[in-house]
Amino acid sequence: MSEATTEPILVMEGVAKYFGAVVALESGSIVLYPGEAHALLGENGAGKSTLVKIIAGVYQADRGMFTYEGQVRTFHGPHDSQEAGIAVIYQEPTLFDDLNVSENIFLGRQPLSVGRRINRREMRRQTREIFQQLGVDIDPNRKAKGLSVADQQMVEIAKALSKDARVVVMDEPTAALSPEEVKRLFEVVVNLRKRGVAILFISHRLEEVFELCQRVTIMRDGSFVRTDLVTDITIDQVVRSMVGRDLSTLFPKTEIKAGEEVLKVERLTREGTFYDISFTVKSGEIVALSGLVGSGRTEIARAIFGIDRYDAGAVYVNGAKLKGSSPLRAMHAGIGFVPEDRRQQGLVMDYGIDHNVALASLNRLSRGLLLFRSSEQTLAKDWALKLQLKYGKLSDEANTLSGGNQQKVVLAKWLSCSPSLIIVDEPTRGIDVGTKSEVHRIIDSLAASGVAVLMISSELPEVLGMADRVLVMREGRLTATIDRADANETSVMMAATGQVR
Amino acid sequence: MAIDNATVVLERGKSHRVAETLSRARELAIVLVILVIFFGTGIKTSGFANLTSIQQILTNASLFVLLAIGETMVIVTRNVDLSVGSTLGISAFLVGDYYTHNPHPSVVLAFVIGIGVGAVCGSVIGFIVTVAKVPSLVVSLAGLYIIRGILNIIGLGIQIEPSVIPQGFQKIGYETWAGIPWIFIVPAVVALVAGFAMRSFRSMREFYAIGSNPVAAQLAGVPVARRVFTAFLISGSLAGLGGVLFVSEFATVNATAGTGYELLVVASCVIGGVAIFGGSGTVIGAALGAILLQLINQALVVTNVSPFWDPALAGALILVTISFDRLLSNRAALALRLKDSAASVK
User: Fold this and answer.
1) B312 Cβ contact partners less than 8 Å away, ≥ 6 residues apart
2) Best mutation site among B199, B338, B344 for testing chain A: the one with the most A CBs within 10 Å?
3) SS3 content of chain B, % helix, strand, coil (to 5)
4) In terms of CA atoms, which chain B residue is nearest residue A163?
5) Contact assignment for A98 to B211 by CB distance below 8 Å
6) Are A98 and B215 in contact (CB < 8 Å)?
7) CB distance from B280 to chain A under 8 Å?
8) Does A99 touch chain B (CB under 8 A)?
């Protein structure tokens, strides 16, 4: 193909990034050619996002070579990288709620008229033009606040297009898009390629990658594994290179017989968020709640745990109806909740391990009006041993721990309350592969000991490897319930994107 | 079911549009409240609704309007500047001191001194906030006390008398042009210029971006530190200019000048629709908020209500406006949620 004749536009070789003792990127390498769509694959925590942030100028590499357009470069900030013609679409939308859509797209590059004044009419016109090209219908004058996740993603894409970039990095751009929108995005990518733009495409949906990209680069544990033409590699080989071992060894699944029904959710509805959700979780069972980001999974968990209100329906725990909107009542009923964002919601980051573990058991631990640190310590030590927590002192602050060990602390907090149901939301997000399987093992042994587990996860291998049943959501509705035997990437993705029936 | 949803969405959609227009027309709403209070008081107290009262209110409001302009810029970037009262005080004192020691003073130099002193105060605070990354609430609170402390030391026992302030300069404080007090024209012009700039210049739009989402602003290549520093520099400079106007208005200065102004200024901004956590609000709104507060103060005086009610009313006004905002934005959020879900169902 043309790659052989043209010069690469961007080359990274052996690039490393450390944060203190934590290795975010060990040895990242990638070569991008103009006019190609290049997939970057790897599990969460493989170092893709760090690599992207070095390209974007957010981080500076500690080691390794980075050349752009044939010159060795270091981008000292996002501004440098943008000036050089690189546009990045981040995984998490980075919009300004208070500004309108067109200004979000053109911030810092607004079209000007006489006297360097912003020309709003021109800005709107150009916005409409890009939206037309993308086939989306968003009012350029509307504030970004309240845009749906998909629309936010489209605005991000419009932002990248408006920059006339020579390299466009897309970090999971399709995670929240409907099949129709994905199709249009792909057309846009093809057009960009024709104009000689290099596209770095990160996605967990391998079918998409094989449809859209010419080459793939695979990373694992912060290091480069291989780069291949998509025609020279199979999905199977890709998965094995990403994971580095077979799936079966990664997910230890104990077969146990499900017991009594612990959680029963009946026609639960929260207007505008989710509708008519009914399902049950039995003791000893792991039920996964799957679906695209923004399909309402986390919101259901929040409603069950009493954080958000629901408008209709009911939740039963161990046969008794649970009155809503009170996490405390939910805790007393025997529910534990490990939230998605452990830094913000799961832990008190500047508390010690002992305080964090004891946080949900304070009533039980205190004697009269007093709470003795020794009883917190005993409890924490007990669980630290059981969960093989790696730590220095029990009084170490939670923010000194690695992501995986932090998650263990959150788990310990809830396990020490001996819950009958535990809800885990993205239990292994941002956790290195080694600790990941430890977390999986903990969840599995929990279920084996008779706890009912409701697991929300965006990682399909995790869902397929762990769950006894998979509930699939799409746009606030339950679209499918798939038993372990029938669950595979295709059946779950089909239901999640609405291609079922 | 689908039909139910659709009608709900229709109704909510209407209220949502109303809500949006209302929140956009925040300035109009305040103007309306100002008119109601002004003429309401006029009906109750004959002889209130006239030009002299208006001139009085505008004169009283002028310093607060000026400070509220700078404060708006700072708050929009998700910061706050509590040092403006002290900065105004030290600027006023040094301008007065300049007049005391110079038999042939220059008015231009007086302005340069005042604005310069303010610029120094603002840039020191802005520097600490952006470089040392200390929260601005803390830095400017420290600034409030440190600047006031310095002023207490240099101004110990000194009272600058009207006799040393030139008549020509004092005229700024009481003369009018086309019925408008000169002392109000200065902040009015600054407000118009600043309002225009914050709508129309890229760098000023970035103030809103920073306050709306600091992380995203960084990722978008916005020079966050430089912009926040600029906001503090402008706020300090305007407080310095306020010090100059203070001297012309009162013609007498001591170490207590400007004490307590900062919270009235923040209150003006909040009443005027500047979101306290940044990202939205206009200079004109904040200026109108300052005028409204002075009007209430004046109305209490003429209706013989104890002026001690003034702070309580200001507080109530803040609560009412914020609750109203909250209500509107909650309704708007719900309406959007329903609209989006209706769109996706279709």
Assistant:
1) none
2) B344
3) 80, 0, 20
4) B220
5) yes
6) no
7) yes
8) yes
Regarding beta strands A320-322 and A312-317, do their DSSP bridges make them parallel or antiparallel, or are they unpaired? antiparallel
Look up residue A171 and give its DSSP letter: E
CA B207/CA B77 separation, integer angstroms:
5
Q: Of A455, A39, A497, whose CA–CA distance to A242 is shortest? A: A39
| Helix A120-134 vs helix A179-194: crossing angle, to nearest 10 | 110
- DSSP state letter for A323: P
Locus of tokens 């002193």: B117
Q: Which residues of A touch B330 (CB under 8 A)?
A: none
Chain A positions in Cβ-Cβ contact with residue B206 (cut-off 8 Å)? 107-108
Interface ipTM: 0.81
Q: What is the DSSP secondary structure assignment for residue B160, as one 8-state letter? A: B
In chain B the domains, ranked by start, together with CATH numbers, are: 40-324 (1.10.3470)
CA angle (A70, A71, A76) in 5-degree steps: 135
Contact B202 A97 (CB under 8 A): no
Is the four-CA dihedral B85, B91, B95, B96 of positive or negative sign? positive
State the nearest Cα–Cα gap between B8 and chain A, in angstroms. 11
Asked if B212 lies within 8 A of A94 by C-beta distance, the reply is no
pLDDT tens digits for chain B (346 residues)? 343 443 333 343 444 444 445 445 678 888 988 999 999 888 888 878 888 889 999 999 999 999 999 999 999 999 999 999 999 999 999 999 999 998 888 999 999 999 999 999 999 999 999 999 999 999 999 999 999 999 999 998 899 988 888 888 898 888 888 889 999 999 999 999 999 999 999 999 999 999 999 999 998 889 999 999 999 999 999 999 999 999 999 999 999 999 999 999 999 999 998 999 999 999 999 999 999 999 998 888 888 888 788 888 888 888 888 887 778 777 776 776 666 555 554 4
Distance between CA atoms of residues A154 and A93, nearest Å: 10
Task: Compute the nearest-CA separation of A32 from chain B (Å).
Answer: 22
Q: Which of A108, A112, A148 shows the shortest C-beta gap to B340? A: A148
Q: Which amino acid, residue B321?
A: T
Q: Are A209 and A464 in contact (CB under 8 A)?
A: no
Looking at residue A344, the DSSP 8-state letter turns out to be I
Closest residue by Cα to residue B296 from B56, B38, B42, B49: B38
The structure tokens listed for B88 are 């105004």
Q: Are B217 and B224 in contact (CB under 8 A)?
A: yes
Query: What domains lie within chain A, and their CATH numbers?
Result: 2-95+147-244 (3.40.50.300), 249-497 (3.40.50.300)
DSSP state of A397: B
